[in-house]
Each structure stands twice: as structure tokens, then as C-alpha cells.
Amino acid sequence: MSALRPLPRWADILLLPIINLVLAFVISGLVVLAIGQNPLAALEAIVGGAFGSGYNIGYTLYYSTNFIFTGLAVAVAAHAGLFNIGGNGQAYIAGLGVILVALPLQFLPWWVTFPIAILAGAAVGGFWAFIPGWLQAKRGSHVVITTIMFNFIAAAIMVYMVVNVLKPAGVLAPESAMIDPAGRMPKLGTFIPWFRNTDVNFTLLLALLCLVGVYVLVWHTRFGYTMRALGHNPTATTYAGISNSRTIMIVMTLSGALAGMVAVNQIVGVQYRLVLDYVADAGFVGIAVALMGRNHPIGILFAALLFGALYQGGNELQYVIPGLSKEMVVVIQALVILFTGAMEGMFRPGLQRAFMLFSPAQKAEAEARNVAKSES
Q: Residues 6 or more apart from 251 whose CB is under 8 A from it?
């Protein structure tokens, strides 16, 4: 028996995740059935809640925007063999950079402050990821451990800054001052009536540009080749004269900058102020998005849309079917992560055998074995 050949790229990125996703939904349906509810009705409620109207689609795209950024943040690091689990903290701390430029410049039109906010969020988020990158490159501290720790440090800093520094006098809620209406980025619903009264905004276009940018960076630039080489074999890159420590620090900075775009979406496009816990664990969802999307921008786009649909559909589920709460969607998300992440290789050998069975090379090999047997 010849060795199993790798799957075609399209099958690895699309077909295998779809199979795992179908299995996750089948198991989820059995869970819904076990608690006495109709799984088909629950699925209809989730799909309708996510795509049933322009309003629902708008919020699905709003959630997906955050997940695209955090998914790309994880993917960029993963291509260099790094596991950035600190996207939550990087997205959170980036809010300081965004609000600190948005408030002084709020008298300017939004299309002027928007690119400045992007640079500020990328700078702060990138710096927060650069430190763990530097610690691994120069001190050997594992990036998984340091990025987890920096999530908690970021949360503590944000509580202190919002409560003790940025909160205006006379305001009881832990939040910064509001951005002046003249400087707020309009929602897409202002220009597209279908999305009226939703939070989806121009940051969605930024997310799509980031998808294209990451694709070009990883597969069509010299640095992208360097980071992929580092991810495959750091010893080989060392012998090739590549500075692994420099590459690690740059990659982690880029990863943190992408995560920082969540702050731009939330502060400039939705909240118009800095509030506590505005990231809402989008950084951790980004890990699942990157795993399911195979760290490829196209896969990340579809995975982000899926999780955005689950978030928005879950919000509607509890109102359509009183016997099911939003926590049911958490169960579905967990099963999706289980089958597309931890158990993603379960169907891989079977798919590889199926592709080999129908490939011309495999047919020729089988015919040669049959001829050899008949001659013997």
C-alpha cells in the first residue's frame, strides 16, 4: 500500500471543514432533541435570525468583522509557527490608542479620523504583541504563556484607565467621554437602507482589505516566504542566514496590529466611546476561526461568517424558541471547534484514500499490481 498523499488544497480548505461542520451540527441536533426541542426548528431559527432580513444580515456582518480581524491575527502568527493566544488582550488594549486619538480629533470629519484611528489601534495592538514576541525571540519565553498572561495585564490596565483616567467627571458608568457626533463614523445603513439600524460599518471594508493584504503578504512576498519557512523548519532558516528572532518579533507585531482593528470597529464605528469588555472574547473566537479556516484568508472569511451567524442567530434563538437559551449556541460553537479543530483529522485519512482511489496515478498503480498478480 502506497503512502497517503496530501489532499488537494481546495479539499483541505473547504471540503474537510464542511464535513466536520456537518457532523458538528448533527451532534448539536441530537443535543437539542435530547432536551425535548425540535432541532430543525432550532436550525431554522438560527438561520433566520442570521440571514432572514437585512437587519439580521447587518448584525451577522458586524460580528463577522471582528472575527475576521482576530482570525487573521492568529493565522499570521501560525504561519510562522507561533500560537498567538493573546488576541483578546491586544484588541482590548488597542482601544486606548484609538480613543486617545479619536477624542482630540473628534472635530474633524470621520473620514479623516478613521485612518488615524487605524494607525493608532495597529500601533498599540502591535506593541502589545511585540513584547511577547521579543520575550520569545530574545529570552526563550514561550509565546503561548506570555500572550495568555498579557490578556490579564491588558484587562487590569483597561479597568484602571477607564475608571481612574478617562472617565469624565460626574459620569457614574465606567466609560470614556463620547466622541462628538460630527466625528463619528456612519453606519453602512446610512447609505444602504437594507442595513438600517444595524452596527455594521465601514470597518467591514477594512476587514476585507486585510484579508487580501494577508494573502498577498503570506504567499506573494519575500517576507511571507521567510515566515512560512520559519514555521516549517526554524533550523533550516537559521542555516539559510535568516534572523529567526527578527522574524518572530515582526510577525507578532503584525498579528497584534490585526487584532487591534477590533478596537477600531467597536470604538469608532459602534460604541463611540471606550467601555469595559467591549471585545466580548472576539480574540478567543478568532482562534476557532483560524483553525476552521486552515489559516487561509478565504477559509477565515467563511469561518468568520459562520461564527457571526451563530452569534446573531443565537440572539434570535432565545426569542423564537423559549425552551432554548443563547447558551445552546455556545454548545454548538463548542462542537464546531471540537470537530473542526481538535478532531479535524478524523476524516482526513478517509478523504485521502478516496482522492487516491479516483486519481489517475492511483488507478495506474492498481492496474500494475493486478497485472503483476496475474503474471505470477
A: 76, 77, 79, 80, 82, 133, 227, 230
What does the pLDDT read at residue 131? 98
Please say whether the beta carbons of 4 and 356 come within 8 A: yes
Q: What integer pLDDT is reported at residue 333 of this predicted model?
A: 79
CA 5 to chain centre: 29
Within a 10 A sphere around the Cβ of 112, how many other Cβ atoms? 12
What whole-number distance in Å separates Cα of residue 166 and Cα of residue 168? 6
Q: What is the distance of C-alpha 111 from the center of its chain?
A: 26
CA–CA gap between residue 79 and residue 338 (Å, rounded)? 21
Note whether 201 and 269 are within 8 A (CB): yes
User: Taking the CB of residue 233, how many other CB atoms lie within 10 A of it?
Assistant: 12
Q: Which of 317, 287, 319, 298 is nearest to 28 (CA)?
A: 317
Identity of residue 362 = Q
Closest C-alpha among 243, 284, 256 to residue 77: 256
In which residue ranges of the chain is pLDDT below 50? 1
- The span from the CA of 69 to the CA of 119, in Å, is 15
Decide if 101 contacts 117 (C-beta within 8 A). yes
Lookup: cell for 31 = 443535543
Measured CA angle at 212 (ends 207, 217), to 5 deg: 120
> Distance (Å, rounded) from C-alpha 329 to C-alpha 322?
14
> Residue 39 in contact with residue 30, Cβ under 8 Å?
yes
**Alpha carbon separation from 94 to 143, 158, 178, 204, 256 (Å, rounded):** 19, 10, 17, 18, 9
Q: pLDDT tens digit string along 50-64? A: 999 999 999 999 999
